[in-house]
Specification:
Radius of gyration: 28 Å
Number of strands: 3
Strand content: 15-25%
Distance between the termini: 61 Å
Helix content: 25-40%
CATH topology of the domain at 2-38: YefM-like fold
Number of helices: 3
Amino acid sequence: MTTVNIHEAKTHLSRLVDEVAAGAEIIIAKAGKPMARLAPLATPIRKKRLGLLKGKIKVPDDFNAPLDDETLSGFEGR
């Protein structure tokens, strides 16, 4: 954890914010006394919603069936 004084924090705020975004924590001190802490924001964890498109998409029964020769040749550039 790095400690910087207020003057240095004001002068180098952009660099300090970049360091914090990368995961560092920085203490800002006034006359050598710690006054504030810069820390990265916790990113909210989104819950996965399984089955969100259930009933809206239909996968055909032959989805995994081999392609016919004409379609296959289009993919292979023949």
